[in-house]
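Weekly puzzle thread! Below is a chain. First person to post its structure in token form gets bragging rights.
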Amino acid sequence: MRATGRFPTLLKFIAVLGLAAATAGCAKKPPPPPPPQIGVAEPLKATIVDWDDYDGQFIAVDSVDIRPRVSGYLLRVGFKDGDMVRKGQVLFVIDPRPYQAALEQAKGVEAHDQALLINAQQQLDRGRTLVGAHAISQQQFEILEATQRQAAADLETAKGNVTTQALNVEWTQVTAPLAGRVSDRRIAPGNLVTQDTTVLTNITSIDPIWFEFTGPESLYLKHQRQAPGRARVSSLGPATPVVIQLQDEPAYSWRGRMDFVDNQIDPNSGAIRQRAVIENPNDFLTPGMFGHLRLPGSAPYTALLIPDAAITSDLNQRVVMLVGPGNVLHEKAITLGPIYRGLRVVRTGLAPGDLVVVDQINRAKPGLKISPRRSPISPGPEVSVAPGPGYTAPVPAAATTSTDVPTTQ
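Winning reply:
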């Protein structure tokens, strides 16, 4: 009984000790977590040029369907399908024998008419002496004159016929009218070809090559207004440089210059046809290829650049997180420009010394205190384009970029 009375007292003592320990634990608050380390950087400053983007297609400067200029049986083909051919190279040979025989006949007629003219001239010379001596009548002399003139005319006709037959013989060899790449032969030797009708093959010039594209009226108007004195040759003239990217290329590796702008805007599409000329010394570019072209859309200006990953959306505006006093984050609305060297141009909303959150964007919230960690911004490679002689950049005051047609570099 004595042990039983001692046990509740022991339990009460243990409970008191536990309550005291719990009370002591509640009195000690855990230390707050340190501010998170988040990467920040100042906007990169660079002098850039805006570019306008267009999609287009390469076309041949010259393309010719080769047709025979005389009819006859085809004897020989002088090229392999797809060859590069030079101007004047013999491509096809038509049987020349019928035309050679006609040429020899025409030469015989010419010689005959030449003899007749000599005889008529001699008769006329004698008649001139006789009519002076009143040995023949004036009427007889006039007949001699008419005979001489007719003989001279017949000789000229014969000479013309010889020239025609010589051309026919020459045209039995079908030559390349230009240098370029030839297509396949459309007809085999032994077949009859018809003058000016049968298509034998096709030749397209390769170097240089054109890049044809269409641009909206808005960009055309922008270029017109940017030109000094509104002279169209300054912003869309032949000296304006362009760069082109092919379908499988990561960068713009082809350089050229503007060559042509059409004289009217298509009333159905609201676009104007334009063209650039590209050097193609290795014959790599082929008519029919598609590509992406850019041409300068502004004068050089100083811009602030940040990574695209640092930009988020808030309703209908683009925002970035900036580091404010006490390393507390706050949100700032910005206006975006084009891409330059892999970075986004910020037109408004940033100052050169601002600290922009560029890392761990998902952790950055307005009002959050952070421990800033500098993360330098690294731009990509620069695309340099040398303008042609006579090119004048648009005036800086008018250098604007259409917001609905983004430009990239």
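Puzzle host: Confirmed. Bonus trivia for everyone else. Confidence is low (pLDDT under 50) at residues 230-234, 395-409.
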